[in-house]
Amino acid sequence: MAVETTFQDLVARLHALREAVASLQITAVEDRPLSGGVLLVERFGNAADDLRGLAEESLAAATDALKAVGHPLDDYRARHSLATANRQFMQLAHKLLSDDISHGRLDELAKFGRRHGGEWLGWTKSVMQALDQCRKPARDADEAFLLSWQDLSERVSGGGVSVQTTNIGAISAPLGAERSRPRRADNGNETARRPRNSPQRM
Length: 202
Fold this sequence. Notes:
Strand content: under 5%
Helix content: 55-70%
Radius of gyration: 30 Å
Number of helices: 5
Oligomer: single chain
Number of domains: 1
């Protein structure tokens, strides 16, 4: 797979993650009931805000990395932008597992919804559903980052060596390499390679 195709796939997966996180943020912050909120609800809202910001930053950096791997390849820019995108994504992934959105907090949120009923019960269910929909895009993006690093590394390091296989399994030498061993005559006799007029050793 060409490195450009790999980076296009990364951008597409990060775009899907951003959409999922944006949906979570809208549900957690903009759609919550207007009264009766508690600190737990505020924490979920703040965490959702952070997730959306990190998703936006990761996608923007990955898009810049995609531009850098075109022709001609801008090696430094590609690596720098990919590292930035990966760093923001790792922070996002960590927050998905952090105390603010951990299973323990989700249990507290579910209990809160059951206690208050009505709008709050519907809101908590919507938040947990939106959060669950973020997990697969996050896993997909994680895999895409791995492939992007692998393909970029091969693209950068593979420019000076040509390795080819033939139908008999021979592997060529690096480009520009010269044979260091002289060609032998068919009969393997060392004297067969001496010039005709060269003196014979006694």
